[in-house]
Amino acid sequence: MEKLIKNDTELNRTLDRIAHEIIERHTSLDNVALVGIRTRGVYIARRLRERIKKFTGVETLYGELDITLYRDDLSQVSEAPLLKATDIPFDITGKILILTDDVLYTGRTIRSALAALADFGRPSRIELAVIVDRGHRELPVKADYVGKNLPTARTENVKVRLTESDGEDSIKLVTKDD
Amino acid sequence: MTKWTKKDLLGLEYLSAEEIELILDTAASFKEVSTRDIKKVPALRGKTAANLFYEPSTRTRVSFEIAEKRLSCDVVNMDMKASSVLKGETLADTGRNLEALKIDIFIMRHNMAGAPNVLARFVGGSVINAGDGKHEHPTQGLLDIYTLREKFGSLKGLNVSIIGDIAHSRVARSNLWGLTKLGANVTLCAPEIILPSDFKEFAPHVKITSDIDAALKDAHAINVLRMQFERDAAGAFPSPSEYYKEYGITKERLKKCRKDIVVMHPGPINRGIEISSDVADGPNSVIIEQVTNGIAVRMAVLYLVTLRSK
To answer: What secondary structure does DSSP assign to A46-57, as a single string?
Structure first.
């Protein structure tokens, strides 16, 4: 069973709001950089960057991060996960990085992302922006910007769909039928 | 989507076009790692690779060792000339003993064709062929193809000429398998007397000629091989200077080629024998890029065989 949590308009309003929150929290955006976690986090970072530019005129730095090689379950996976290149075209040392991802769940992806970023330099701070926080954390990870807090059961699945990868903008809660 | 299922990489003959593409795509992602300040990712943490070199090699061994280390893999280098081989141990016994040491990946260079295939049957760990006799040198073939794909985007319809001592060359064999599988048109060019006839199996995708001008005309890329004068080629061709005059890739010869022709060489190069210095160091040469790409390709192979679908 699929339940629509946010439609196209609502999801884009959420992104507007997160962009405003980022602007509000940082007196200067000059040192702020958006880093998207592949795959959907990249599209979210791009959209937030567009909005920040629209609202303030500032073009923030932007990068793309593939966390595969830093996964804590890599030695247990059943097959080598497909790699995509990491592309962070600026020195992250001293920057305020805003990591973006679609769904925050166990927190393990974020742990991997933090380990990966540590190999690129020493940011002055790292913040986290997600579209959905669905709970069930297995690590002490917390998001700074949350589109939607959505309490879920572990058996359920949250799908953030974005036009760039899925042909539409929506958030859906999928429950397995018994 | 293609999944990697093979335990070993023994040759490009045994791979499908899709598997070769998967290695190349994976290598493209790994290339970025070597551009970082901290050139290391934790992907193969806790795994151990043994570099078994039964034949001297510096560049291939070092390239593999760097690839292993950039993946956080532990490395043991074994100079097999100075080890139990001299005491009469068989390949199977060497393999079993190493496996008792919990080695996960074996990189093998051997003067006998098929030696890595034999080792692969006796060990549960992955075996990567780093050159076996005149058989194959798959990671060299892959890095040559990777370099071409980076330059041209695709191998389909690309005219690639391999020039030199093809009969003795495992690099030529790996290139042939890989290039033809990905749809390139291959021309093999060597002096009449050492022209390999056993490459007929690749026809009709492969032209064989001893006419250097025919091999260069219309070529998008050439792969120049070293004349192995220390092997039996010495008897086949009068002298290095004679070879240079007849087949050496010089600036004058390049003038008659496509302007954007890509010149490759697996190294070590013999300046003034198979290639002139001004070509080797010139704008068409990608010889140094090949060395850089070798690391990324070997990282990709190590990653895929170690974390293969089980």
So the answer is: HHHHHHHHHHH-
